[in-house]
Amino acid sequence: MSISKTYQPKQAEDKWYSYWMENGFFRSVPDEREPYTIVIPPPNVTGVLHMGHMLNNTIQDVLIRRARMKGKNACWVPGTDHASIATEAKVVAMLKERGITKKDLSREEFLTYAWEWKEKYGGIILEQLKKLGASCDWERTRFTMDPDLSEAVIDTFIHLYKKDLIYRGIRMVNWDPQGKTAVSDEEVIRKEVNQKLYYIKYKIVEPYLEKFQEPNKDYLVIATTRPETIMADAAICINPNDERYLHLHGEKVYIPLINREIPVILDEYVTMDFGTGCLKVTPAHDLNDYELGQKHNLPVIDILNDDGTLNEKATILVGEDRFAARKKIAILLEEAGALDKVEDYKSQVGYSERTNAVIEPKLSMQWFCKMEDMAKPALDYVLKGDIKLIPDKFTNTYRHWMENVKDWCISRQLWWGQRIPVWYGPHTPWDLEGSERFEIAKTKEEADALFTNYYKSLEGDFTEHTIGLALKRIHQDEDVLDTWFSSWLWPISVFDGFKDPNNEEINYYYPTNDLVTAPEILFFWVARMIMAGHEFRGEIPFKNVYLTGIVRDKLGRKMSKSLGNSPDPLHLIEKYGADGVRVGMLLSSPAGNDLMFDEGHCEQGRNFANKIWNAFKLVKGWEIDDSLVNTNQVAIQWFSDRFNQALSEIEDHFKQYRLSDALMTTYKLVWDDFCAWYLEMIKPAYQQGVEKQAIDRETYTATVSYFENILKILHPFTPFITEELWHDELFGDRTSTDCCIVALMPSIGQIDARLVTEMESVKQLITEIRNVRNTKQIPKDKLPLAIKVNSGIDYKVYLPIISKLGNLEEVTFTEDKIAGAVSYRVGTDEFYMVLQNNIDVDAERVKLLAELKYLEGFLKAIEAKLQNERFMQNAKPEVVNNELKKKADAETKIRIVKESLDGLAN
Asked: What pTM was computed for the model?
């Protein structure tokens, strides 16, 4: 086929992605091959592609494409997460635009709208991943609320409850007033914010004032950032050893504005030198206060509604939003003379990851999962190396989390999600208005049967009709389960490992191989999947966890829409091509380290694609001439050795999960070794007026074969351009299934290390010759070269390459230094070029003398450092060795400059 002047990424991307899909290259079914399995970290169904997704999914696609080309049965399972809080917020916003509020709908009506939203918007991010080139098995796409996956979640809850690992209780939780639900610690983002610190006067109760003789000592001062919570105060706490407040022992104070009496309690929990040394204790609205309240039997007064407004227990400002109440209560305190002062203050405040609302600590009846027993085997798997964290620096973080694990609040006060399989009914059939009991059941029918059996076991005079009335009052728990309670089952549930624990697919694909995810979910997703794998399969869910870094801008800031520093990934693909963006993302993203993203990386990736394209055009422009003799045997053999050497390095990088290094090795092999050196060594001399340049058959065949192998090792990184070139007629006829995506990776062949090493010296020599031409401003005239061999390299073998690339008229060998010649060294070998007719001798002498002066000064400074005893005693060995190397290099350069000056004198 004819090849266009420039690479057209969009055309290639649309064509080949459709072709791969149509021919089922992404599809995987169990067979006799070794499986290689990745499950995608399911993006939120609300999500759209951002830079973090780009990095994460590029890495996954590189791994899966490489495994496919290694002959493995590669299976990449895609899917999305139902994201309870985020999705419910989206649906509520959609309803608001239609003039509908959630409270006006029944649960069933709301869920109808939620599914409508999901069907319309829920697949956007997966379609966007296709633009990146993600080669997922799309026929396997799962959703965490698919019927089978939801059933697995319910079965899991029942299983763990029966093992006494799930319980219900009132605990202090992180409350999201906007989402009106509890959220986990991991879903709370701590931010430093500017606040006000309010110093509030609490008046001491009147009957005890005879103790106090000093004026203005009839009150104590409390500092707080949350004056709107004073109505929930249950006590004032002071340290019993604080001499400033000995007179307050056993006293009581009035809460300002509402004049409710509260006691002064003593506890060493209070730090004497922090703030005023007095602490307001508000058990309902602070975790530490709650624990202090439990210790001192204090009442719990919750003054906040679920939406963050003040309730009747506040007695004032009822119905006001908490932040509006804060401003108003500050004014009221000042008017009442109860505000001592206000200061600016910085502190950490928790925000909901999903809604960005400020989190409220709140006592709430919730369902919890015990973690301690499940955490132990999950920690052992990592410490023993059964599961490897990459990089391993995260092992200590993982250990800390697992050794200090807390029970998991698994209930969420939402409608979108798997509803908790708990049913409440009258404790006895004859007392329908009394206390309730609950049963764990998958369905209402199962719950009815359990309650019926329970009622019949009771002693009492009641009929079937009485039981029937009681059963009508049975109702299911309103809460749903935490989204992570479904995604922790993901590696098992996507292969129906709960529905059919011994099915062919779960036995073939599980455990999976690699998981690629972000460090921030190492505990509340990765660790929990490991727990689930042990609990339900008795084995690990994956073997390696590749932890990506955060994508940051050039200033080191995390990319976000709010900062406006995050480019649209699809626009980048449109501008630079998917291959260019993939290369740009990977060039500087070592595992676990943040990526300082610069759009210039994508430009570099696009330039790389263009370099490959232009190299292909060059080779395609050659024509075989069977009358020509191959004079390129050394170049051909060298590139074969260099390719195999690079292939060995790439294999090692992949084994160590150094994907950036693997790409860079590939990049340098293609750009430097193949394009800049090999093609220049073997390309035919340009003949004016000739459309195709003639080349011998042997060189042409070897070069086409090399190019084909280069396309193979490039494909995981740049799938589109490689597939486009793979099908060119240059490589002969291809069948419909003979595609680069399934071509077998080349095997590492024999390497002549001597040839590779010597060729590096030859390349350095040619570079020196070109440097002489540039610095001396010599036109492209052919020049003579004399070689004084000290290393044992047989330069005669390489003369065709040296003469061609150095544009030399003759190459001779000498045992002596050549007077009047420019000289330089490569290793221990010396090279001379007589240039008197091409240079200004006087100007060259001035230049060399200036260089000599600089080098001698540099050497003097190095020697002074090495003669400094303090430096030699304190410096690390590698630093000393580096200074010694500088000294040796400077001495060599000085000798060469002096020899050049001597040559000019002759």
From this structure: 0.85
